[in-house]
Amino acid sequence: MGASEEDRVGTTVSRRRRSATPPATKPRKPAWKKTLRRSRRKLASFLIPVFAPPLVRFLARSWKVEEIGRENFDSVMQAKGRLMTLWHGRMLLPLPRHARAGHRVLVSPSADGDLVLPLLRRFGYEAIRGSSSRRHLRALREMLSLLETGGTIAITPDGPRGPRHSVNAGPVWIARETGYPLIPIGCVCDRARYLKSWDRFTIPRYGARVCLVYGEPLRLAKDAPDEEVDRLTEEMRRRMIAAEELGLERIGAEKDW
User: Which of 168, 173, 192, 199 can pair with 89 through a Cys bridge, CB separation 3.0 to 4.6 Å?
Assistant: First the structure.
């Protein structure tokens, strides 16, 4: 016996209701976990600025630092201004070697960035606060002004949020706008403690061998097309990874990524 018109309509409406049902949302994390996370961050914001600088200084005195490609670094120092790039998780490794040389570091204007400032200042670095999402125009103006007066700026192209070993076009774009060279740097060590963060932040252990590899500088003409910016951005990434691979080979260590 065929279904009535009313039955067919009811069945159609029922199907539409089922199809319109929104997907199940992920369960919210318990409130106590959020409270614990905030408490840990507050504790870290107190402990890190106090204890990290002397601890890193103590460890750094024991590190056996080796350099590869130092001539590349020396060559960009002859320019009026220059840019350096290194991975976010490796920023600790070159701090002692380039301490008090007048270099500036681009630091995110976030709570995590605030934790880094005391450590940078302990080793004689100044910070430029800015990221792609916050204070970027102010940071850009400050960087351009500094480069014009002969400064050196260190940038982590995968920071402040990652993912690890990703890159943005910012450093290469600045190199094009200013005409100043950009040197990709690889930093590795043979023994380290890694934090459980997206960048696996590297803290070389006492007595570790540290290798700093200065890659071949990138230079870009001011009238270069955007396609060339994209190409050299990927080339910057390739050279940074190649520099770390060379450093690991020199000190006989395995890849940690």
Answer: 199
